[in-house]
Every structure is written in structure tokens, then in C-alpha cells.
Design goal:
The protein is of the alpha/beta class. It is built from eleven helices and eight strands. An eight-stranded mixed beta sheet has the order 3-2-1-4-5-6-7-8, sandwiched between helices. Helix 2 packs antiparallel against helix 3. Residues about 1-5 have low confidence and may be disordered. Bound molecules: 3-hydroxybutanoyl-coenzyme A (3HC). The site of 3-hydroxybutanoyl-coenzyme A has 18 residues, from helix 7, helix 9 and helix 10.
Length: about 290
């Protein structure tokens, strides 16, 4: 499984991840568990400390649940190199950017990556809502830029949307898709470079409807969530899911859909804006529609 096969696909023997938050940490854990060395760039020594603690705790949980043998857990930890220097991503065949949802920041990262990575390196963004082409055009090699959209919690969720822009080369799309499917073992859904891709275009309006319903006093947060879990068979209710995703991420995805389709149906509910402004971001801040 070290070498990737597939028509027009190249082997990727080292992968870089930029960012080790909830999604970045899940992605790098999956790469390391799949047997591929991974270099992780974060912004500070304290981010190294937090990121490493989170990933090693997650690998430790898998070990405790009997999902990972001691040797496999230790080998996965060994495959991860932590750094604060973007230059350490130089030897990676694929770099996945998993920074916060901020276009200027992502464009800066892609412009900086251009200078340090090899000529063949594929540059991927895990953006959930920014048009991939807007990020790609910050790079001098937009044909080598694609989107790879993982879902939270990344170690568990089976899907990755692979997004080709108007400029992405077929070989780059094939290489990244083959890696995600054959090495990481995920189901790849090729998605258009349109706001929300496939999943968020359906999911985010649903979450926003649930937030608006709660805001109107239609039902309590607990009742809305229980209704969808017990009445519709969802693994979690929409308000609990919004809290898991992060209310700031939900807001930015809703804004992106609203901007693309210019339709009031996609407008983020006022309560979502107010909660984000108040710092109530869901699980990661300890408070959202529920408390944690
Ligand atoms: N990291 C690693 N593993 C985790 C985890 C995490 N953060 N959270 C749960 N798991 C594992 C558990 O260890 C357990 O593993 P096991 O079966 O091997 O023991 C398994 O997942 C099930 O977990 P639990 O038994 O604790 O709880 P649930 O059965 O309720 O599952 C859940 C939790 C997987 C989060 C489930 O509720 C679920 O699928 N929820 C929906 C999540 C979803 O829709 N995500 C997509 C959001 S959209 C998105 O991310 C896109 C972005 O752009 C907005």
C-alpha cells in the first residue's frame, strides 16, 4: 500500500499537511495509519504540542478500543514529523492545506508553498466553502491545485470530495483521487468547484433551517435533535451536528452558498451570526446550541 497505482496516477511516498486542527489532525492521522510518512506544519511550538497531544490521544483511543495494535500505533506516531517551518514540506508529493477558512490566509500559504515544494508536488486545499479556483490562482501552478474535502470526524467519515477546478490537470486529479481511495480507503466523490460542493450544498441549508426553526421557538434544541435522530434515523441531530462542525465553519459555508447562488434561501440565519459574534462556536468553544 506504500505505492499508489491507477491510470495516470503517480505514487505518493510522502504527504504534507498544513494545519493540525480538528480536520487537519484527522487527515494526518489517517495518512500515518495508512503507512505513509507525513510532515505536519503548524504555526507555533505550542501548536505542535497541542496537535501532537490530540493526534496521539486519538491513536491511543483506537489502541484502547482494540482497533490498533501497539506496533501499528507506535509506527503511526513514528511516521509523523512535526514542524513549524513550511520549508520542511519540500519533499512531499502532495501537500494538503487544512488552515482556517480565510481566503487571504489560504492564498498566502499557497503562494509560499510554491516556493518551497518540488515541481511535481500536488497542492490541495481542504476548504469547505471557498471556491478552490480562488485559492489555486494564488499559485504559479494552478494546474497542480485541487480540493480534497474531508468530513468531521475525519478518522471515521468515509467520504472525501475531490474537486477539480477549471485549471486542474487530469493527472493531478487522478493521482490525488487514487491516493485517497486506495491508500486512505475513502470513498471519493468527484465534485464540481461550486459552493458547498455536493455535501455542504445539501447539508448546510438543512442545518440553517434547523437553526431558524429553533430561533422561532418552533421546538427546543434537544427536541429538534431528538426528532431527527429518532424520527429520521440521522446519527445526530442538526443542532448537535452544527456544534460538531463549528458554528463559524457553518456560517462561512452558508455565506459562500448565499454568495454563489444569490438566493435568500441560502442566507445564514441571524441567530447563527449572533452566536459566532458572541464566540459561541459549538464544541470547540464549549458552547453552541448545547454546552460541552
Ligand atoms: N475521532 C476519531 N474517532 C471518533 C471520533 C473522533 N472525533 N468521534 C467518534 N469516533 C469513533 C468512536 O471512537 C467510535 O469508534 P468505534 O466504533 O471503533 O468504537 C465510532 O466513531 C462511533 O462513535 P461513538 O460510538 O462515540 O458515537 P456515535 O455512534 O454517535 O458516532 C459520530 C459519532 C461518528 C460523530 C456520529 O454521530 C456521526 O456520524 N455523526 C454525523 C457526523 C457528520 O455528519 N459529519 C459530517 C459533518 S459535515 C463536514 O464535516 C463538512 C464540513 O465542511 C462542514
Amino acid at each position: 500500500r506504500e505505492r499508489v497505482t491507477g491510470s495516470r496516477a503517480r505514487a505518493l511516498e510522502r504527504v504534507g499537511v498544513d494545519g493540525a486542527g480538528a480536520i487537519g489532525g484527522g487527515i494526518l492521522e489517517g495518512v500515518a495509519k495508512a503507512g505513509v510518512p507525513v510532515v505536519v506544519r503548524v504555526i507555533s511550538a505550542s501548536a505542535v504540542y497541542c496537535g501532537r497531544a490530540r493526534v496521539e490521544a486519538s491513536l491511543g483511543n483506537a489502541f484502547e478500543r482494540g482497533k490498533l495494535q501497539t506496533a501499528a500505533r507506535d509506527a503511526a506516531v513514528e511516521r509523523i514529523t512535526w514542524t513549524t517551518d513550511l520549508g520542511d514540506l519540500a519533499g512531499c508529493g502532495l501537500v494538503i492545506e487544512a488552515a482556517v477558512e480565510n481566503l487571504d490566509l489560504k492564498r498566502t500559504i499557497f503562494a509560499e508553498l510554491d516556493v518551497v515544494v518540488g515541481a511535481d508536488t500536488i497542492l490541495a486545499t481542504n476548504t469547505s466553502s471557498i471556491p478552490v479556483v480562488d485559492i489555486a490562482m494564488a499559485s504559479a501552478r494552478p494546474e497542480q491545485v485541487i480540493g480534497v474535502h474531508f468530513f468531521n470526524p475525519a478518522p471515521v467519515m468515509k467520504l472525501v470530495e475531490v474537486i477539480a477546478t477549471e485549471r486542474s490537470s487530469d493527472e493531478v486529479v487522478a493521482t490525488a483521487s487514487t491516493f485517497v481511495a486506495d491508500v486512505l480507503g475513502k470513498r471519493v466523490v468527484p465534485s464540481p468547484d461550486r459552493a458547498g460542493f455536493v455535501v455542504n450544498a445539501l447539508l448546510v441549508p438543512y442545518l440553517c433551517q434547523a437553526i431558524a426553526m429553533f430561533d422561532r421557538g418552533h421546538a427546543s434544541a434537544g427536541d429538534i435533535d431528538d426528532a431527527m435522530v429518532m424520527g429520521a434515523g440521522h446519527p445526530m441531530g442538526p443542532l448537535a451536528l452544527a456544534d460538531l462542525i463549528g458554528l463559524d465553519v457553518c456560517l462561512s459555508a452558508a455565506e459562500s452558498l448565499h454568495e454563489e447562488y444569490a438566493d435568500a434561501f441560502y442566507a445564514p440565519p441571524a441567530l447563527l451570526r449572533r452566536m459566532v459574534a458572541a464566540g459561541h462556536l459549538g464544541r470547540k468553544s464549549g458552547r453552541g446550541f448545547h454546552t460541552y
